[in-house]
Protein 1
Amino acid sequence: MKGQMMRYDVFETEMGWVAAVASERGVVRMSLPEKAVEQAFDHVRPEIEGAELDPGALADVRQLVQAYCAGGDADLTEIEVDMSAMSPFFRKAREACRSIPAGETRTYAWLAEQAGNVRAARGAGQAMAKNPVALLVPCHRVIGSDGELHGFGGGVGIPLKERLLRMESTRVPAAV
């Protein structure tokens, strides 16, 4: 991201504090909702170093994420994600993950196949485990081939993954 102007914002949602950092191409890192603002900031380091606080530049991100976290029918795929620094496999896996409709799930094996390597389910798992924008690349929608929920970041982990899946399957339209 050298040479790019980075901007960031931190804001409160109904689920907790979220910090987001964006380049001119889109969001490069975003925390999951956290209990404290400091925890949200911890998830966006080192990208936040040298970035400029600019809530106006990320107003659309804030609005959509707040609506989503309130249980509204917000389409987070409207938010651009800067995947330029990702490996081709990780980028393809994350693009496939973004295509999973809200309230539905797919397996790591499905992600691997979509990314071009049917034998790379573990690699797809790593793409999700190292996902820097977990709400925007909704890795909570990816489950094990056994149908179980596996691994999830943030301070809450699997309970947050369960909560997001439940919320998405019972959404009400957002009043945005």
Note: Helices lie at 37-42, 59-69, 88-98, 108-114, 121-129, 158-169.
Protein 2
Amino acid sequence: MSNTCPPKKLLFAITGASGMLFAVSFLEALVGRGLVVHGICSPSGRKVLAKEQGRTPEELPTVERWFDPADLAAPPASGSSDYHAMAVLPCTMGSLAAIAGGLSINLIHRAADVMLKERRTLVLAVRETPLNRTHLANMLAAHDAGAVICPPMPSFYLRPATLEEAARTYAWRLADQLGVEIPGRRRWDGE
């Protein structure tokens, strides 16, 4: 019998909101962390990723397997899946609404519902501004169901000099929420 623990499995979802720089930065931060990362990308997420980053999901680092968002029979749709956490980055207000309402319109929504019902970590990086009352109510409903609402907001006290550095500060924060240690992660030191 082996005393080694299997690597943690993380599910990563991309929806069609702006902010793909944050998704790329987060996945780059996971390189070499010993995680198994699987992904789901919505059709609109695919379009925005191409427009903002000139990439397809399959060209992103770290993700070993991509699932079709229409495949509700894929492993992430089941409570027996062994993902320890899920992040939706960026998370559209439509995806937030579906998740908050318990609607399994696609695999992203169903997988998020599985994370909530199994009491596993679900982080929603909601991306919209300004926010209306419905957005706020949906964030509260998702929070009350167990999700972590973590909009992509960089840590400016770390004085990032570029957009990429700013995105990296958010990647570190998101990793913290998912229980993933990132070497070199800078923290507030009170100075």
Note: Residues 163-178 form the longest helix (16 residues).
